[in-house]
Write a structure and sequence with these properties.
The chain is an alpha+beta fold. It has six helices and nine strands. Strands 1, 2, 3, 4, 5, 6, 7, 8 and 9 form a nine-stranded mixed beta sheet that branches.
């Protein structure tokens, strides 16, 4: 599965050190995703349990020119009795940012999730100060819905977030 320069693949056991970098290296996560050090064995435990893919969500590697450049993830958000949507996220290594790979990966993830699940809505959120991610989401076809005030605690203070979504009916024309 590739679109332009980006493809996805499931996480293999030898990819776990790559993923652990996002838990151990503040430079790898970037300023908007660093929330302090976390248990680096978290990825290994989850991988041993379900290879990071199950009905509640998943993680795939983002690959460009056969090189790992980041990850995409999604998790189930219950929206009502018998209904849910996906909340998606992305993290790219610093050297992969600013090249359009994130926009391609997010659009590709939307296509993938609509093709393989029955959800009608996919959403994403990012800190209000993360203008680059907001532009990427908009280029990927997401619609800005609003601001979530004091949504996430990071670096000693509460941060506002901006929420975006794309509906199945909107993505069908891509």
């Amino acid at each position: 599965m590739s679109i332009d320069q980006v493809s996805f693949r499931p996480v293999a056991e030898d990819d776990l050190p790559f993923l652990e970098r996002f838990l151990l290296d503040p430079e790898a996560t970037g300023p908007f995703e660093w929330h302090g050090w976390r248990d680096p064995r978290r990825w290994r435990r989850r991988w041993a349990e379900n290879a990071l893919l199950d009905s509640e969500g998943g993680v795939l590697l983002v690959v460009s020119d056969d090189e790992r450049v980041g990850l995409v993830a999604w998790r189930k958000i219950i929206t009502g009795q018998g209904s849910y949507c996906w909340n998606v996220g992305i993290n790219l290594l610093p050297e992969a940012r600013g090249k359009g790979l994130g926009t391609q990966a997010q659009r590709h993830l939307v296509r993938y999730l609509f093709a393989h699940t029955q959800v009608a809505r996919i959403e994403a959120d990012t800190e209000s100060a993360n203008v680059a991610e907001q532009r990427s989401l908009e280029k990927a076809g997401f619609t800005r819905e609003g601001v979530l005030r004091s949504y996430a605690f990071r670096d000693g203070e509460w941060r506002d977030a901006v929420i975006y979504s794309v509906l199945r009916s909107e993505a069908s024309s891509w």
